[in-house]
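Pipeline run #58 for the internal structure catalog. This entry was flagged by the ingest filter as a single-chain record with no existing model, so it goes straight to prediction. Upstream metadata was stripped on purpose; only the residue string is passed forward. Reviewer on rotation: M.T. Logging verbosity set to normal.
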Amino acid sequence: MGTMSTDVLAYSNESYYSVPSMIQYTIENDNMGDIVNRHQLLNQENEQVATCLDCENGYIIYDVNDCIIEYSPTAESPYANYDDIVYYGGPLEYVTEENGEFFDITTGNNVSDF
């Protein structure tokens, strides 16, 4: 059985994002506002493992099977300040890459394996 998707307007860039209905329900139910950005989250093999939606209030991260991994209706997205390729090692493991090295977004520490 497939997952139903619904278009949600992201007003900040006047684009539509197709999001699974359960994700949209969570965003609306928790009054997270409009989607303002979308990040494809990769693993170390550069395969997409999740999606992060930055909302006006909070963020939501869900996997490729449309299951919510983590979200907050109040905290800023850990990826809010990143437009480049970003990585995800699982709950609370937010990673970026610079010059072939991986860094934890939260601490700035070099991480060789996530």
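catalog note: The radius of gyration is 14 Å.
catalog note: The chain has a mean pLDDT of 87.
status: ready for reviewer M.T.
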